[in-house]
Design a protein that fits this description.
About 35% of the residues are buried. The two termini are about 25 Å apart. By secondary structure, the chain is of the alpha/beta class. The chain has 7 helices and 5 strands. The longest helix has 28 residues. It binds flavin mononucleotide. The site of flavin mononucleotide has 13 residues, from loops.
C-alpha cells in the first residue's frame, strides 16, 4: 500500500485548516493510501540552522525533532499540503519545514489543497515553484476551497456536506497523485538497484 504524508501548514489555534483536514481524512480513509498527518503546528522544528545545505549533505540532522520529521518524510511516497494564504504567499513555518530537507522529498509527487478568497491559488503557485527546486513533482490539479465552504462551515453545515462540491477536484488530485506515486516509486526502486 502506498503511503502519503499530509502536511498541514497553518499553526493557528483557531484555524480553518481543521475543516479541509477532516474532509481529506474521510476521503483518504476510503482510498488505497495509507497516510500520516504531519501537522506543522506540532513539530517543534527550530529555524533552519544546519551547517550544510540538505541537498548536499543528505540526512545530517542537528536535532531529534529534525531527525524524527526526516524519518516521517522518508517514509512517504507522496505528499498533500493543506495551505492557507497570507498576503498572497504560503506560510513561513511551512517554508522552514521544506528548507530542512531534500533527499527525503526528492523524486516524489506533491499535491495541494488551498483555501482563501482565491482558493489559496497564489500560495499553491508559489509552492509549486519551490518544490520543483526540491526535485519534487507538483500535481497539476488542485483543490481550491472558497467562500461557499467558509459560509457553510460558519452556518453549521457538517464538514463532509460543505466540502461535497469539491469532491471531483479532490478525485482528480488523488488520481494524478496515484499515477505519480506509482511512477516515482518504481523509478526510485530502479535507482536503488543500480546503486
Ligand atoms: C496577515 C494575513 C494575511 C492574509 N492574507 C490573505 C491572502 O492573501 N489571501 C487570502 O485568501 N486570505 C488571506 N488571509 C486570510 C487567511 O487566509 C484566513 O484567515 C485563513 O483562515 C487562515 O488559515 P487558518 O484559519 O487555517 O489559519 C490573511 C490573513 C492574515 C491574518
Amino acid at each position: 500500500m502506498s503511503r502519503i504524508a499530509v502536511l498541514v501548514a497553518s499553526t493557528r489555534s483557531t484555524r480553518f485548516a481543521d475543516n479541509p483536514l477532516a474532509w481529506l481524512q474521510t476521503k483518504l480513509n476510503e482510498s488505497a493510501f495509507e497516510f500520516d498527518v504531519i501537522d506543522v503546528r506540532d513539530l517543534d522544528l527550530p529555524y533552519y540552522d544546519l551547517p550544510t545545505p540538505p541537498a548536499w549533505a543528505h540526512r545530517e540532522y542537528a536535532t531529534e525533532a529534525e531527525r524524527r520529521l526526516g524519518e516521517r518524510l522518508d517514509a512517504a511516497d507522496g505528499f498533500l499540503v493543506i495551505t492557507h494564504e497570507f498576503n498572497h504567499g504560503y506560510s513561513a513555518p511551512l517554508k522552514n519545514v521544506l528548507d530542512h530537507y531534500f533527499i527525503e522529498l526528492a523524486h516524489k509527487p506533491i499535491g495541494f489543497i488551498g483555501y482563501g478568497n482565491a482558493g489559496g491559488s497564489r500560495a499553491i503557485e508559489q509552492l509549486k515553484q519551490v518544490v520543483i527546486e526540491l526535485d519534487m513533482v507538483p500535481i497539476r490539479h488542485s483543490v481550491n476551497v472558497m467562500g461557499p465552504q467558509y459560509f457553510a462551515i460558519r452556518d453549521g453545515v457538517p464538514v463532509d456536506e460543505a466540502f461535497e462540491p469539491l469532491g471531483a477536484s479532490l478525485d482528480k488530485v488523488l488520481k494524478s497523485l496515484t499515477w505519480w506515486v506509482d511512477a516515482t516509486a518504481a523509478a526510485r526502486a530502479g535507482e536503488a538497484k543500480l546503486a
